[in-house]
Amino acid sequence: MPRKTRTTHAKGFTLIEAALATVIVGTGVLAILAAQQAYHNKNDWAQRTGTAMLLANELRELTLTLPQHDPFTGTSNLGPEADEPTVADFDDLDDFAGPVDVTGFGPGIVFTPPINALRQQIPNMNGWSQFIEVVNVLPDNISAAAPQAQPVGATDLMRVTVTVSYQAPTEAQPSTLTQLSWVVGN
Hints:
Elements: H1 15-63, E1 109-111, E2 128-137, E3 157-166, E4 175-185
Antiparallel strand pairs: 1-2, 2-3, 3-4
């Protein structure tokens, strides 16, 4: 009787199996890297918007207890008085409108670097800026946009808006990260 010959198969993976395993593992690694990159982007965005809201609240806290107009000159001199050249000297809310023109509107003020509620510059805040603008609004339309806003001193209600922007070293233009508005009345 003839003997049966036994065929032996080589042990290990074939080239196709190895290539398929490489594709599957590579796809998994790329998916993990993409998820990690998305996490870092979202974390960076959350950190920046949180910082922006803190900077906006610093200006809100600074202006919260100020009267609308200078206690001595009232509405006869809107914007910063001649003896108030810096934010450290501002003693009323209309000072933050900036130099008010004949139409009753001021350009607002930009703080770069940003300032805190104690009117001090905040160190190590390169690229950050705070823009504050003050306009009067009508009592029945406090959310009016600039065309409906009233000249400073025209009504008893003032809307203060703070816009915080950040320009990363790699960006050509600053990005607005938050805007905070509130209304102040007598």
